Protein 1
Amino acid sequence: MHAANKWCLSLINIRLGLSTLSKALLLAKGISYTNISKELNVSRRSVINWYK
């Protein structure tokens, strides 16, 4: 019984962690999508320049 309770609690914790993680990811995606794309473009350019 104790092991089953532990397993259930860990499952709940994992679910909570996943939901908060997905919320954080959605928030980050909404806020900094343009920033991320700008950074990707900059890093892509710098990589291309570095290879030239």
Note: The CA atoms of residues 1 and 7 lie 10 Å apart.
Protein 2
Amino acid sequence: MKHFIDFYLGKAPNQEGVTIEEILAYSDEELERHHNFIQWLFPLTTPSSVNPHVPLVTPKIIAAFKENRALQDQLLRATKVMLHFYGLTFSKDQVLKDKTFQEKKHRIAGHNLLRITRILKSLVLLGQPELSLCLFICLCNIAQDEMPELQSTIDQHWRNASHY
């Protein structure tokens, strides 16, 4: 637990020697290319087949996130980085499309569907269920308005992931 919390607070690198600050500074191209960071930013209670050495969320980690404002702030920063990657933004309790959405919306597909599922689940686990719900609602609106191919993913994965 301590290693993961230290990583998240910027006090230690992860097992690959990368700090959270380095990950949060990745360009969109680096976020697309690297597949072993998302498990560190948005941990779950189940192991990842892509990165099985990432610490799993435990009740102690959940409690630490819910009690520690600095951990919540880092979680929000990580979420904003990933939202930007998808052409989305978080403002006033809403997740909305930003001005880059049209050029980035293709990223809401492929392996990124799994990343989004992970983000939704992790936000709920780590004390941000409202943000998870805001992202889910935004994704539902995107599916309805311009990406109907997302509907099956919403029904099969994202609805349960966001606990809505």
Note: Residues 133 and 141 are 12 Å apart (CA to CA).
